[in-house]
Amino acid sequence: MSGRYEVKPGMMAFGSYFGNAQADQQVFQIDDNFAHYRQAKFLARGERLSKYYQTCNYSKAVAGAITRLIINRLTQEHPQHFHYQKSIDNILKFHSQLTKETLYLDADLQLQEVEGSSVVPSYASTLDALAAQVQEDLTIICRSDDGSNWLGAVHLCYPNHWSAEEKIGKDFATIHAPVAGMEKINRRGGAIANTMITQKPMVRFAWGLSTDTRLNHHPEPPSGVSVSQWQGRSFDSQHPQLYLRIERQVIWGLPEYEAALFSIRTYFRDCSVVKKHPMLRSKLYAAIQSMTPESLIYKGLVESKASILQWLQE
Questions:
Q1: How crowded is the C-beta side of 33, counted as CA atoms within 13 Å?
Q2: Spans in the chain with pLDDT lower than 50
Q3: What is the DSSP string of the chain?
Q4: Is residue 161 part of a domain?
Q5: Which end of the chain is flanked by fewer CB atoms within 10 Å, N or C?
Q6: What's the domain count of the chain?
């Protein structure tokens, strides 16, 4: 965090060192919270799968390439957890030691069968099944021959106030139009999509503030839950709970398929710990202070900005 709130691409080479040892080299970061993240995906899927998982003009060729990429990365990055083998009849068998699930995929890497799973609803596709093996959300950007780009697939069980159903099929600029401060970037939406697809893998980080550590902040709460309770944007200075919600986003282009995988891993950092470090506290204070009125509205901080800043100074 620089001490100034800015909206910019901020892409760095994948594998750049951030002090996290081997994890910085991984697309898929697995930690002791795996079971909690998996349960959050199951709760979302159980609510209504189409609320969190969508595809649009997602070709079999691109789907197969994304599957190969995910399986290759998982088996390379975590050989103790994942392995696969091909049978003579061209069936690929992918096994997760973490979930005890085995996926059987045909020659096109389409899901045929799942062993060791009691998931409800049952997996709808290979992407749906693979998303349940990791702690990241997965999105896939596609591009056609005429250069137009669109969101071809999205598996988003940890949304940060955006909706898979609303964004599917839209281009980069349209998807990001509601984001305050994105105007200049959106004018280069096609160029950024091109960078995502054609350049070497990249990583970027985004952050916001939340008053809870719930992974799922879909704009539409589940039935029986109030909007204010669900949103995680109600700061109470009498009982302060505030967290940095940090997204580690990895972009992995597949230029031969005119597509890119965009993974989102969500982490939380307790601001009561942050405020104990003078430099971190001053940077967070300055970043919130520097937000434009539009950014405060977008981040849901209009009403709580003053009380958060006061709390940080206490």
A1: 13
A2: none
A3: --SS-------EETT---S-GGGGG-SS---TTHHHHHHHHHHHHHH-HHHHEEESS--HHHHHHHHHHHHHHHHHH-TTTEEEEE-TTS-EEEEETTT--EEEE-TT--EEEEES---SSPP-SHHHHHHTTSSEEEEEEEE-TTS-EEEEEEE-SS-BS--HHHHTT--HHHHHTTSTT-HHHHHTHHHHHHHHHHSPPEEEEEEEEESS--S-B-SSPPTT--HHHHH-----TTS---EEEEEEEEEEEEGGGTEEEEEEEEEEEEHHHHTTSHHHHHHHHHHHHT--HHHHHHHT-TTTHHHHHHHHH-
A4: yes
A5: C
A6: 1
Q: Are 7 and 179 in contact (CB under 8 A)?
A: yes
Name 129's Cβ contacts closer than 8 Å, sequence gap at least 6: 101, 103, 111, 114, 123
The token pair at 7 is 């909206």
Note whether residue 54 is domain-resident. yes
Is residue 5 situated within a structural domain? no
The answer to whether residue 294 sits within a structural domain is yes
202-248 pLDDT tens trace: 999 999 999 999 999 999 999 888 887 788 788 888 899 999 999 99
Instruction: Give pLDDT tens digits for 141-174.
Output: 999 999 999 999 999 999 999 999 999 999 998 9
CA angle at 271 for the pair 266 and 274, rounded to the nearest 5°? 105
- Contact, 252 vs 261, CB < 8 A? yes
What pLDDT score does 2 carry?
Answer: 54
